[in-house]
Design a protein that fits this description.
By secondary structure, the protein is an alpha+beta fold. It has helices at about 125-140, 155-165; strands at about 10-15, 20-25, 30-35, 45-50, 65, 75-90, 95-100, 100-105, 145-150. Keywords: Hydrolase, Magnesium, Metal-binding.
Amino acid sequence: MKKNKKDSVDVVIETPKDCRNKYAWDEKEKVFRLKKILPLGSVFPFDFGFVPGTKGGDGDPLDVLVIMDEPAFPGCVLECRIVGVLKARQTERDKKTETNDRLIGVSVLSELYSDIEDINALSENILRQIEQFFVSYNQLAGKKFEPQGWAGAEEARKLIATART
């Protein structure tokens, strides 16, 4: 697929790659808040943020894990090519279960990952480690994260179109 502007979306970074601090956008106060600190040895594997102007099954903007050369910072807006989605169900502490998919994007400015157009271009090892990160991250919060499989760029873009508010 040829890269073009219509296939990219803006992503607001909440938590940078290699960071133990989990930041979250507070829509009401219009600030980034420290939400939690991960235990020693746990860090975000890539930048993590959201697609503004969307609303997912959990009521929040769609989540995106952004693959790029270097970490960004909270509040940085990155133009990203969405390459796939980790389909998932998440059970909250109150036992309520909801869809909480994780989009996977690549910064359009990335040099190292410029050839990644679809989730299938990433190694099975990377995909497995991304799944395990979200399982462990949610387990630490008393939640259950159940990966339901991977889907490619086309399905991910459809999810974004459906979630636009």
